[in-house]
Specification:
- The protein has three domains: 83 residues; 74 residues; 167 residues, Beta Barrel (L,D-transpeptidase catalytic domain-like).
- It is α+β, with helices and mostly antiparallel strands and 377 residues long.
- It has twelve helices and ten strands.
- The strands form two sheets. It has an eight-stranded mixed beta sheet, with helices on both faces.
- Helices cover 57% and strands 12% of the residues.
Amino acid sequence: MAITQTHTTLAAILCVLCLTGCVQAVPPDLLLALETIDQDLIALRAPEAAPEEYGQFVRQWVSLKARVELDDDLIRWPWEASDLENELRWLYIAGERTVSKLHERQASQHRATQATVARLEAQLHAMTSRIGSIDGRILLGERVVHTDLLVKQARSFFEQKDFQRAMQAAEKADHALQVQTALLNQELGRYADESRIAHWQTLARQTIEWSRIHQSTAIVVSKADRELTLYKSGRKVLAYTVRLGFNGMLEKRVQGDGATPEGRYRVTDKRGHGQTQFYRALALDYPNAEDRRRFNYAKKSGRISPIKGIGGQIEIHGADNEQLAQTLGCVMLDNSNMAALYEGVSVGTPVTIVGALTRENAVALTLSELARRRDEI
């Protein structure tokens, strides 16, 4: 009887000791911490960002979890060593190190991508806000729309923390902006060419001097300034804002290109009501001999298609309605200004159309601003 009681007492003591001192083979909080590490690695796109480290982590984690499941019912004394727990803790340390490294890398990518996208947005805004003032929108066509979509894609990917795809879209947008800037310089770079500007200034001075010598009227049109100035006896008597063809800033090359021609012309006819589709018009002698010489040379050199024509019917005119508010290559004034100009000139009046009269013209300033923004990259 005494022996039985002793056994019972010993069993009870062992049970209490087990409940108070024994532990599970693997601490649950360690498993939870590893699960969290795994989730963090997925959130940080470790399979793409650190494939080798993530692959090693997953293989070890899967293997150790399988062993945990087999040893799930085992318990041990606190002073007993556990190889499984040690391996799990080493895996946790390795996983935590990878998470930390990816956090740092992601933060760096975040800063770099954010700066790149912000720069492209600013550059695109500068491009779109300025090209309208120099008639560049039609010249660039759908390129601006395409670039805008690429920049928006880059911003969207950035906000999704997909920095790789954001940078890919940004690189495409950057290339597109470079192409557009190069095209603008190719077509409009002459507005920043000092020798060309000096030539235009000479043409304008000669026209004004002709007006002074002959005590007559003369007209000078600056395309960059969009301004028509009337001189009488060499003195400026009025200046009006004008609109140009839809590609007015370009050099006139062929019929239908929408460009406003540059050169020395004369008023060949004054057209009033019933003689023109516009309010009133001053017909010019485009194409003159110089225009034809340039056109024929360009054809022979292959810069102009042999089937293209030189065009004609260039006028300084007003407009009757909104449908005629966009000229095709002429110089357009508001009707009230056209009325005053019409009365102030006669057939034979010289008209000199130039690209620009100063180096600080709107086109040159725009090209300079776009170049400056690229240099800041």
